[in-house]
Amino acid sequence: MAQHIARGVEHISGIEARLRTVPEVSANCDASEPSVPDDGAVYCNMDDLKHCHGLVLGSPTRFGNMAAPLKYFLDSTSSLWLTGALIDKPAGVFTASSSLHGGQESTLLTMAMPLLHHGMVFAGLPYREAELLTTDAGGTPYGASHWSGTEGQRPLTEAETALCQAQGKRVATLALRLAADQQHSTKNAPGDSL
């Protein structure tokens, strides 16, 4: 899903997608993850968030909520909240669950809450995306989703793939627009008319 969202982001000229992950959370206090994972995307850090123009977070559904590693990571972003580093940046969320009614929408909403607290501009999927009306698997107005099956055996459907790419395009488009608006507003003195 993340790769399809990144493809959607990169359909918008002037935007580069960066895939990141977060380390697992260990019940063993002495255990720690390597500073660079053995495979997959590199770990996200505060600078990645601070300097992003938009953000799309994803997590598997765990009892109708985001997985613990993402929650743990988001709980560590207070320094960004204190400085307002993420204010007015667009953000979206995506998830996958093993059952069709496994809590996808509640998971998306739990991921949205910290982003709203950061002052980010939440970007769901509008119903102009026809796949929202025809999907028989994942896909919600809150963000892209996937019904993976109990063993992860279900591949992404065409509708799920299209919604992932649409979400990437939407966040990238909003990032460019919001950045342009911010540049325009800083050029105008407080007394200037807009």
Keywords:
194 residues, alpha/beta, five-stranded mixed sheet, two-stranded parallel ribbon, 7 helices, 7 strands, globular
List the helices and strands and how they pair.
Elements: H1 2-10, E1 20-21, E2 42-43, H2 46-51, E3 55-62, E4 65-66, H3 68-75, H4 78-83, E5 90-97, H5 104-117, E6 121-122, H6 131-134, E7 144-147, H7 158-187
Parallel strand pairs: 1-2, 3-5, 5-6, 5-7
Antiparallel strand pairs: 3-4
Helix pairs in contact: 1-7
What would you say about this model in short?
By secondary structure, the protein is of the alpha/beta class. It is 40% helix and 14% strand. It is built from seven helices and seven strands.
Overview of this structure, please?
The protein is an alpha/beta fold and 194 residues long. Helix content is 40%, strand content 14%. It has helices spanning 2-10, 46-51, 68-75, 78-83, 104-117, 131-134, 158-187; strands at residues 20-21, 42-43, 55-62, 65-66, 90-97, 121-122, 144-147. It is globular and about 55 Å long. The chain starts with a helix and ends in a 7-residue tail after the last helix. The relative contact order is 0.18. The mean pLDDT is 91.
